[in-house]
C-alpha cells in the first residue's frame, strides 16, 4: 500500500509534462537524476539508464529514494552540506563528491545540480542532478601517478588527445575510453580532495543544457513552461524548496494555509494528509479547506473556525469532513 502511494506521488510529479516526456528523457545517454522537493525527502523521481548503469542499481531500487543512499563512510560531510545549502538557496552547484556504487565501491564524480523553475509562478518544481565521473589512474604500485593527487598537468596531458571525442559522447562511452587508456574511477585516495578538470566541468554543463532543452520544449508544448533560471519571483503563498523539504520530514497529517491571500488557500499538504484524504497534492494546493466539507458538515463548526481566524486565536474542535 505504501509502495503504491509512493508510485502515485512520483507519477503526479510529472503532471506538468506531456505523456511522452519520460520517453524523451530515456533517449538521453547521460547520467542524471531528477528529484521533487514537494515530496517528502526530496526523492528521486527519475533516474537515467546511464545513472543506473554507473551506480549498479535497478530503477526500482532508486526511484523514491533520497540521494543519501549513494553516500558512504568517506563521503565528505562538508560537501554534502554545500549541496543542501544550494537546495535551500535554490541555486546551481558544481562540486566533487565521493559516492558509492551498490557493491560498495567508492568513486569520485563531479555533481552538477540546478533547480527547474515553473516559469509562471517562479517556484522550484524539480532539481536536476548530473553526475560526471572524474577520470583517475589506479593506485600506483611503484611508479605512476594518481590524477587526483598529481593534478591538472598530468590529467590534461592524458586527456588532450581525447578532448573532442569525450566532449560529445555519453558517460558510458567516456567510461569505456578511460578504461582502455589505463585510467580508473575507483580505489584511490578516498580522503580526497579530488578536483574535476575543466573538461569534466564543461561536460556537466553541456549535459545540464541538453536536459533543460528537453524540459523547456515539453513545457512549451503543454502550456506550462519551465526554465533553468527564475523568470519571475515566487508569488505570495509559494513555499521555498527548502521549507517544503523540511516540512515533509514531519510525519503528521496537516496543511498550511496563507492568511495573506484571499480565501486562505492551502500552500502545503503533508504526505500523511494526502493519504488520509485521498487527494493528490495538485488537487489541493491553491484551494480552500472547504474542499473537505460535505452535506453533513456542521456549519456551526465552520463558523467557529472562521471566528478564531478573524480573532487570531487557536482552535481545536471535532468536525465531519469528506475524503
Could you characterize the architecture of this molecule?
The chain has 323 residues and is α+β, with helices and mostly antiparallel strands. It folds into two domains: 2-227, Beta-Lactamase, CATH 3.30.450.20; 248-310, 2-Layer Sandwich (Beta-Lactamase). It contains 14 helices and eight strands. It has helices spanning 2-12, 21-26, 49-55, 59-62, 77-89, 147-150, 152-159, 163-168, 171-180, 198-222, 241-248, 271-277, 281-284, 299-310; strands at 32-35, 44-47, 93-100, 106-118, 124-133, 226-227, 255-257, 266-269. The strands form two sheets. Strands 1, 2, 3, 4, 5 and 6 form a six-stranded antiparallel sheet that branches. It has a two-stranded antiparallel ribbon with strand order 7-8. A hairpin with a 5-residue loop joins strand 3 and strand 4. The chain is elongated and about 70 Å long.
Protein traits:
two-stranded antiparallel sheet, 15% strand, alpha+beta, 39% helix, elongated, Beta-Lactamase, 323 residues, 2 domains, 6-stranded antiparallel β-sheet, 14 helices
For the record, give the distance between the C-alpha atoms at the N and C termini, rounded to a whole number: 18 Å
Largest sheet: 6 strands, antiparallel
Quaternary state of this entry equals single chain
CATH fold group of the largest domain: Beta-Lactamase
CATH C-level class of the largest domain is Alpha Beta
CATH architecture type of the largest domain: 2-Layer Sandwich
Radius of gyration: 23 Å
- Please give the share of residues in helix: 25-40%
**Shape, please?**
elongated
* CATH 4th-level superfamily of the largest domain: PAS domain
Q: Indicate the mean pLDDT.
A: 75
Instruction: Please count the helical segments.
Output: 14
Structural class: alpha+beta
User: Ranges with pLDDT <50 over ≥5 residues?
Assistant: 142-147, 149-183
Amino acid at each position: 500500500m505504501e509502495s503504491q502511494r509512493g508510485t502515485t506521488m512520483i507519477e503526479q510529479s510529472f503532471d506538468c509534462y506531456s505523456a511522452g516526456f519520460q520517453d524523451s528523457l530515456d533517449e538521453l545517454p547521460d547520467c542524471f537524476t531528477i528529484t521533487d522537493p514537494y515530496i517528502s525527502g526530496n526523492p528521486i523521481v527519475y533516474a537515467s539508464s546511464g545513472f543506473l548503469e554507473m551506480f549498479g542499481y535497478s530503477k526500482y531500487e532508486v526511484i523514491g529514494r533520497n540521494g543519501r543512499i549513494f553516500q558512504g563512510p568517506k563521503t565528505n560531510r562538508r560537501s554534502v552540506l554545500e549541496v543542501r545549502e544550494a537546495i535551500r538557496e535554490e541555486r546551481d552547484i558544481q562540486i566533487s563528491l565521493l559516492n558509492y556504487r551498490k557493491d560498495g565501491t567508492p568513486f569520485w564524480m563531479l555533481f552538477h545540480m540546478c533547480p527547474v523553475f515553473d516559469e509562471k509562478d517562479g517556484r522550484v518544481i524539480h532539481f536536476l542532478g548530473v553526475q560526471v565521473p572524474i577520470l583517475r589512474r589506479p593506485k600506483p604500485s611503484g611508479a605512476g601517478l594518481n590524477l587526483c593527487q598529481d593534478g591538472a598537468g598530468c590529467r590534461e596531458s592524458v586527456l588532450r588527445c581525447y578532448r573532442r571525442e569525450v566532449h560529445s559522447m555519453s558517460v558510458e562511452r567516456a567510461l569505456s575510453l578511460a578504461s582502455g587508456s589505463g585510467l580508473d574511477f575507483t580505489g584511490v585516495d578516498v580522503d580526497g580532495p579530488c578536483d574535476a578538470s575543466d573538461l569534466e566541468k564543461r561536460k556537466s554543463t553541456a549535459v545540464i543544457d541538453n536536459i533543460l532543452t528537453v524540459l523547456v520544449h515539453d513545457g512549451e508544448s503543454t502550456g506550462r513552461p519551465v526554465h533553468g533560471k527564475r523568470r519571475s519571483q515566487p508569488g505570495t503563498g509559494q513555499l521555498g524548496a527548502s521549507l517544503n523539504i523540511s516540512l515533509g520530514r514531519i510525519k503528521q497529517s496537516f496543511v498550511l494555509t496563507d492568511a495573506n491571500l484571499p480565501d486562505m488557500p492551502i500552500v502545503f499538504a503533508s504526505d500523511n494528509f494526502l493519504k488520509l484524504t485521498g487527494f493528490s497534492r495538485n488537487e489541493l494546493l491553491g484551494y480552500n479547506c472547504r474542499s473537505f466539507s460535505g452535506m453533513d458538515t456542521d456549519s456551526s463548526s465552520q463558523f467557529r473556525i472562521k471566528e478564531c481566524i478573524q480573532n487570531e486565536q487557536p482552535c481545536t474542535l471535532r468536525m465531519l469532513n469528506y475524503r
